[in-house]
Design brief:
The mean pLDDT is 87. By secondary structure, this protein is mainly β. The longest helix is centred in the last third of the chain and has 14 residues, at 87-100. It has a 6-stranded antiparallel barrel with strand order 1-2-3-6-5-4. It has 1 helix and 6 strands; from the N terminus they run ββββββα.
């Protein structure tokens, strides 16, 4: 999937329901994944819930993801995990909205 460069503030938390929401910057996104810039890289294999508020939306969209790689600058590559049939459709709509920003 082609990655779209973005500058979006997001919140995330571990998928196991643990810690409070933390803030980070999303610097790239596609239907298949994203690049998350955090203060500390997420350990490879970490499952997270990413909350993104699409442009024009009131409430955030929650997306499941898994940390799959790191870049030298410390950013973490995420692979999105679809837990329901409409997940990829919602992601395509999110990417479309961000592209129009």
């Amino acid at each position: 999937h082609t990655r779209l460069p973005v500058a979006v503030r997001v919140k995330y938390r571990p998928a196991d329901g643990g810690a409070e929401l933390m803030e980070a910057d999303l610097t790239e996104i596609s239907v298949g994944g994203a690049l998350l810039s955090t203060t500390e890289p997420l350990p490879i294999g970490t499952d997270i819930i990413l909350e993104i508020t699409p442009p024009g939306a009131v409430s955030p969209l929650s997306i499941s993801g898994k940390a799959t790689y790191h870049l030298p600058n410390g950013a973490t590559g995420l692979k999105f995990i679809y837990r329901d049939g409409g997940g990829s459709r919602r992601l395509r709509e999110l990417v479309r909205r961000l592209r129009q920003q």
